[in-house]
Amino acid sequence: MVTRHQVLVASNRGPVSHTLGEGGELTVKRGGGGLVSGLSAVKGDAVWVCAALGEGDREAVRRTGGELDPADTGGQQVRMLDIAPDVFADAYNGIANSVLWFVHHMLYQTPTEPVFDADFERQWRSYEAYNAAFADALAQEAAEGAAVLVQDYHLTLVPAMLRERRPDLRIGHFSHTPWAPPDYFRMLPDDPDGGVAAEVLRGILGADRAAFLTQRWANAFTDCCVKLLGAEVAVADGGDEMIVTHEGRRTRIGVHGLGADADFLRERSRRPDVEDRIALLREQIGRGPDGEPRRAIVRVDRTELSKNIVRGLLAYRRLLADRPEWRGRVVHVAFAYPSRQDLAVYREYTDEVARVADGINAEYGEGDWTPVELHLKDDFARSLAAYRLADVALINPIRDGMNLVAKEIPVLSDGGCALVLSREAGAFAELAEDAITVNPYDIGATADALHRALTMDAGERAERTKRLAAAATALPPTKWFLDQLNALRD
Ligand code: G6P
């Protein structure tokens, strides 16, 4: 008998992933993040529908029929979908990560990219099929009148597809990315009678409520609905929500600025493995010529084009060039963890990050001083160690939906940390007042901001860190999730 659920979450990446060993054994890894904590607050029979991302996941689906063993998921009910590998690759690598991600983060080098050709058309059909597979599974799993929370740019077509299959459901969509302004968004094929741009907007408008991380991204979405679809927008709920009316349907638009998971982070960051790594990092950072511990400028990112890691390194180089007093007295601790390595452009970017870091070390390194400590191998405990000891955090994305690192560092900082923050990160809306804010393209201004951060008075730094931590934890993941669920059921 099929169990039917009252609360459903759908996202491309689920809460667990599997690796297939050479002897055929499966290892399960549980991921973290806002959704995992948020969903843990839902009591009862919630289910998470996600895609199998690799061979390990596919094997797990083969062995379980797709309903993962709750013993492997921390008790969470997870239904993993095995979508044909070529369809999945087209949808995930082709459309989601190479087109929609690039549009919303405005990453295209427009003289040559994007090109909407026959390959793109095939990939788009795969994206539709992949979204339809989610809509089918959700339609099957949902109880009468259930609430379904669909996540992110991978699944923009699901709300409208699911509404067609199950008009009784309450459907929400949440975007974890920025949203592009209409002049940029409409570079997608924009034939009003069925172009991709209109299909994405109509897909999301199939939801009862669509939500974003900041007002800025919500406004960009409604602007796209007005300019590309001719929809109408009105303010509702005393200004807290907007309503988009299109083809006789109304979709509510909300904003929920996901905050840091302070309880989890504080507990996790006090464990011995983190303490060990603090000691190791302190040793690597070492002491300057005056015998004082060197200052640490920390960044922790996926190696992601939108994170602007190369310009961050160039700004640090500029700091060393223009202000020789910092040579030997500061270390840039940069963790850039591999991401989306199926895509050549991500692999090339990873190489570029390493090349620029090596160049700085060759140019300025001296004696026991390594100016840039770049680490590419993912290590969560070491990231938390760096959060705790950072003197300065460098968060300079070109565009970012939120950037949780900007929120997590002030929460964990042991001695106060000055935050250099891009004005293009979603977190800017909540943290600008106590951060040193930068235009992420401006290397000189970023170098100056690093200098200001390094010279900030310790008392002021501690005060600002306290206020940043309070702002960063205003909406913890469980509340973030339950607010959306309640708003959807309203
Ligand atoms: C962003 C997206 C998520 C995605 C994550 C990692 O945060 O909003 O949906 O899961 O990046 O990217 P990946 O392609 O590895 O899932």
Features:
490 residues; alpha/beta; 9-stranded mixed beta sheet; 6-stranded parallel beta sheet; 17 strands; 44% helix; globular; binds 6-O-phosphono-alpha-D-glucopyranose
Description of the structure:
With 490 residues, the protein is an alpha/beta fold. 44% of the residues lie in helices and 19% in strands. It contains 18 helices and 17 strands. The protein has a nine-stranded mixed beta sheet with strand order 5-4-1-6-7-8-11-10-9, sandwiched between helices. The protein has a six-stranded parallel beta sheet with strand order 14-13-12-15-16-17, with helices on both faces. Strands 2-3 form a two-stranded antiparallel ribbon. Strand 2 and strand 3 form a beta hairpin. The longest helix has 24 residues. The protein is globular, with a radius of gyration of 23 Å. The mean pLDDT is 96. It binds 6-O-phosphono-alpha-D-glucopyranose. The site of 6-O-phosphono-alpha-D-glucopyranose (G6P) has 7 residues, from loops.
Overall pLDDT score: 96
- The amount of helix comes to 40-55%
The tally of beta strands, per DSSP, is 17
First-residue to last-residue Cα separation: 31 Å
Which structural class should the secondary elements be placed in? alpha/beta
Report Rg. 23 Å
Taking pLDDT < 50 over at least 5 consecutive residues as the criterion, the unreliable ranges are none
Shape: globular
- Within the largest sheet, what's the order of strands? 5-4-1-6-7-8-11-10-9
In this entry the ligands are: 6-O-phosphono-alpha-D-glucopyranose
Biggest sheet architecture: 9 strands, mixed
- Total helical segments: 18
Strand content: 15-25%
